[in-house]
């Protein structure tokens, strides 16, 4: 008998209307959205369901995404769906912490609101840059990037897709050298900052201070941390991992490989989009992957 992982997408998967059918048709999801609105002082349903310019702003996106995924998770739990392990890409790690029972939904929403503001304010516009590198191995990218000051790997997503981040000039220099080294394409990303780079160290440290007032509980299932790609079963390690995650590489491919090695053969992506489902299939064609972003998906599941 294999194991099941609940996995949660990160920033960039947001879309207007996400979670709306859950909100309108289940009392459980409605309570999650309405509670988030109370905590944050603005309407999260309005942010998620009505066309606006704020949904793509980091300081709002993160709270919107986490609220949506947790609302879906709570409905799934109510209907008897359970996982053996949880993981999330970057921002999605907070949903994984909630799924594991380590962080309350209230604290997850409050923390990512603070995280979003800190990340939004960390680096002036135009100073940093992120680019996706396609068609070249992680080892080849590391060999090119490591000697260049001001740039690092931000995300190891899956074979053939890795993201670099850092100072704009350093990212551009690395991009030229990566093309020379055989990269098929370099795609600049439309993001508001050089996330998961050393430029966000101060933001991570400030988040660490905020986390000191957050109470964490012992997990009822383990989760896999972005920074280490290892199982975490001790909540005492979590705050330090979340602080480092802001300015460290996200080891998503390695996290999935760790779960596969532990016997996970079913991955359920909870939240908008199918980004993680695509990554998992590129990492392992044998893994069963299901996406839950609409209530109809849950009915089929």
Structural class: alpha/beta
Provide the CATH top-level class of the largest domain: Alpha Beta
Number of strands: 10
CATH architecture of the largest domain: 3-Layer(aba) Sandwich
User: Which shape, going by the Cα principal axes?
Assistant: globular
Tell me the CATH superfamily of the largest domain: Malonyl-Coenzyme A Acyl Carrier Protein, domain 2
Describe this structure in words.
By secondary structure, the chain is of the alpha/beta class. The protein has helices spanning 20-25, 27-40, 44-49, 58-78, 93-99, 105-122, 138-145, 168-180, 201-211, 238-245, 252-261, 275-283, 295-300, and strands at residues 3-8, 85-88, 128-134, 151-158, 161-167, 185-188, 223-224, 231-232, 264-270, 288-292. It has 2 domains: 3-123 and 198-300, Malonyl-Coenzyme A Acyl Carrier Protein, domain 2 (3-Layer(aba) Sandwich), CATH 3.40.366; 128-188, Malonyl-CoA ACP transacylase, ACP-binding (Alpha-Beta Plaits). The strands form 2 sheets. A 6-stranded mixed beta sheet has the order 8-7-2-1-9-10, sandwiched between helices. Helix 12 (275-283) links the parallel strand 9 and strand 10 (288-292). The radius of gyration is 18 Å and the shape is globular.
Q: Secondary-structure blueprint of this entry?
A:
Layout: E1 3-8, H1 20-25, H2 27-40, H3 44-49, H4 58-78, E2 85-88, H5 93-99, H6 105-122, E3 128-134, H7 138-145, E4 151-158, E5 161-167, H8 168-180, E6 185-188, H9 201-211, E7 223-224, E8 231-232, H10 238-245, H11 252-261, E9 264-270, H12 275-283, E10 288-292, H13 295-300
Parallel strand pairs: 1-2, 1-9, 2-7, 9-10
Antiparallel strand pairs: 3-5, 3-6, 4-5, 7-8
Helix pairs in contact: 2-4, 2-6, 4-5, 4-6, 5-6, 6-9, 9-10
